[in-house]
Each structure stands twice: as C-alpha cells, then as structure tokens.
Amino acid sequence: MDTETIRRRLSAAWGEGKRGWRAAVAFLRPRRREGALAALITAALVAAGFGADRYVEARTVTLYRVLVDGEDVGAASSPDAVDAWIQSRLRQASARADGARAVVANALQFRAERVYRGRADDAGVLAALDERLAVKVEAVRLVVDGKMIGVVKNRAAAEAIVGRVAAKVAREPLVYDGKAKTVKIARLSAPAPKPEAETVVDAALKNDVEIVPALVDPEAVDDEAVVEARLMGEDGEAKVVIRPGDTLSGIAARYNMKLDDLLALNPGLTPETILQIGQEILVRRAKPEIVVQTETTKTVRVPVPYTTRTIEDASLYKGERRVQQPGKDGVKEITYRLTRENGDVVEETVVDERVITPPVEAVIVVGTKPRPSAPAGQFLWPTRGGYITSGYGWRGGKFHPAVDISGVVDRTIVAAAAGTVTFAGWDGGYGHLVKIRHAGGYETWYAHLARIDVSAGQPVDQGQPIGVMGATGHATGVHLHFEIHLNGQAQDPTRYVGRR
C-alpha cells in the first residue's frame, strides 16, 4: 500500500476520533509485512490512539439520572444537590405540621452514568421533583368509638389530649396511660386524704380509644387545641341533683359558670335560695366525646339528733317549761362508695357506718296547771322585763303603730293573751312575725323575732313562749315590735298592758 493511501486513512481516522483510530489500527495490522514504513505508521497510530483516549476521557463527566417512582426526570450533577433540596422541603412540611416527622412518599433512585461532553440539568430536575414529589408527615389519628376526632403529630400528643380532657370532665387529677382501647386512668399523685374528701380508688374510660398511625399531608395535621376542643364537646344544658353540702356558688364553680348565669338559667332561684336535697337545677356544661367513670370513697361525719323526753309538772302553768337536762346531738361517721360519670354521681352505696359520739337525751319539764283566764282586752307584758324604747304614734314623719321593747335579760317572747296563732313566718320589714287572734276581736303582733316557736293554727295560752327576740327585717337593733289590733285597727298597747 502506498504512502498516500495510508495518509488518507490516517486523516480519516483523525477526523472520526477514537473509533476511527481503532479502525485504522485494525486496517494496518495485516499489512505489517509491507515493511518498516508500515511498522512505523502502525506505531504512530497506536501512540495517537492512546492520546485520543486521554482526550475523550478528559471530556467525559459523571451524571446522575434521577428516577421518581421509576420515571426518569433528568440528570443531576450530584445526589447531594437533590438531597439538599429535598431536606429543605421536608423541614418546611414538618413546620406546617406542628413538628411532625416529614418523609418522601415516592420511590427515589439515582443512577450514575459517564457521558462524553455531558451536561447536568439541576434546575430541570428540581422543577420535575417539585411537580412529582409527594411529601407526607408521620402522624396519628385519634378515634373514639369509631369516630375520628382529629389528627395530631404523634402518639404522645394524642395521649396528652385524652388525659387533659379526662381530668377536666372527671374533675380529678388524672392522666391517660394509653395502653389499650378501653384504658385505665391513673392519678398523677396521691395527696394525703383530707376530712370529708373523696379518694379515687379506680378510674377508667368507658369508650374505645384508638390512636392510629397515619401518613398524611402536612395540612391534614390539626392544631392540638382544636382536637382537644372537639373531644371536650359542645356546651349544652343538663340537670344536676342537689346533694348534701351543695351550694349555688359551689355548683357554679364546679361547672365553670358565673353565679349570675346559673341563676338566669334557673328562674326563681336567688343567691339566698336554700337548696333542698334531691332538688334538680339546670347547669350549662360540655358534652364530651368520652365518659370517665371513677370509683371514689368518701367518709363524712354527720350529727345524730338527740331525742326529747317530757315530764309533766302540775306546779307549772300550762305553756311553761323547764329544761331538766339539755340535749346534745351525737356524731356518726358514714363511709360512702360513689360511682361518678364525668363527675356526676350515678350510684351511691353506704359501705360503713359507726357512731363516734352517742346523743344525749333532752329532758323537758312542762307545766299542766291551768292558767287563769284574763278578761277580753286584758294583756300580759309580752317580754320578761324590759322597757319601751319607742312608743306608739308619729315619729320622724311616719306613724308607728306599736311599741318597741328592749333591755331584757331573757329574750323569750310570750303570748300576751290566750288565743290562736293566725300567722307565723317571714313578712318583709317585720322580719319573723307571729300574729295571734284573741277573743273580743283583738289581735296581737310580735315582730323582728330571731326565732319562732309556734305555727299557724296552733292554740296558745296566755304567757306561753312563742319565740325569741331578735333583729330580723327592718330593725336597727334587737327589740320586740309589739302591736295590738281591735277589729283590724291598731291600738296603743300601753292602754292595755301598761308601761314597764
């Protein structure tokens, strides 16, 4: 082969790069016998081929094909560049989900390859990832009796929410242990028992509570306060039964109500209303999604009323009495077991009862000697001693239809004459008032009493105790307001009983 042919082949090989050089070497190998020139050319070709390899290698780069769920989305310069972008997205998702752990839900792969004069497209890869990448957070669903209450960041947050609501509705320092669907509630601490305080001996949720792991969008994670409010339920009206020791202010505090709101919910109640055991009143309270059942014990001390025995004495007038032995209440201790649901008693059982101090019997001596009858219109002084401090007639621009008596040592009030009690109770400014009807159209009034010892319809003898002097109603001090009426018209009492 002539030199020109070899030259053309070399030129063609040079132009075709590495592949051309290899073809030229293959062409010359069988022609090595043509002499030194061929051998020299072959050596030159081999040397040139090695140079071409180095040339190509210097211009070849490693790229990383990025595959999302098996789909090639482009070539990146390095996995680190993609990973840094993904970590930024995960941090943003976690922040939107109250710190829940964020993860990539797709299958993400990197495949390395060597490419001659290759170029990475990081921006294109990140744009494709922004469209295709599914970022989720690991959270939990709180489910009560099959009803989904909300989604929170982790199990600890869900357990804390259940514990806080359980403590609120049971009105006990409780914490949720979270070990089962129907779960136990444990006390946070065991304080020393106080007199008449309840001690929790057992507590449990009546509901099936489930905390279910879930992979959700960051926006699906609820604020913990919102989930707690859902579990607590909406406010509504409910009836409560009055129990021993209950007061209006105490009930209002128990149900987080203002006293005025409680009174508005129960027309007819006032701050002075005396509640009766067993009475029902309305309260406004939440209706929680959970029911906490507690078993408690409570030990109380209650009085044991004393009994009274009477002894008749013919030396005393009827209506007179003498205490031979004062009575005294005893004390007994009662232990109850109470079953409560969300703080309300649903069952009460007496488990122990014992007398601490027995009562002392009262012995009263009562008179049986008949009193002499007084002529109509003649009255006894209604107090034991004392004097008139304000007379009958006009005073300070107002008419005073009575005499006021005070300065007594014994505050016992007696009937000024025999008759029948027509009224015994509260009468506005008169306070505790007793009215007695007598023969001849007379009636006597006894006002501002501290205590009333007779009742309407009861017959009384002249001089019989009917109450105790006091300062009830519109009174500025302890005294008896004493009126005498004749046929409905007020009379001057001093005309009938004389001034003391």
Automatic annotation (TrEMBL):
Top-rank taxon, per record: Bacteria
Statement: the UniProt record of this protein carries the keyword Signal: yes
Positions of the G5 domain: 290-370
CDD domains per UniProt: LysM, M23_peptidase
UniProt domain LysM: residue ranges: 238-283
GO molecular function, one term: metalloendopeptidase activity
Keywords: Signal
UniProt name for this protein: Putative peptidase
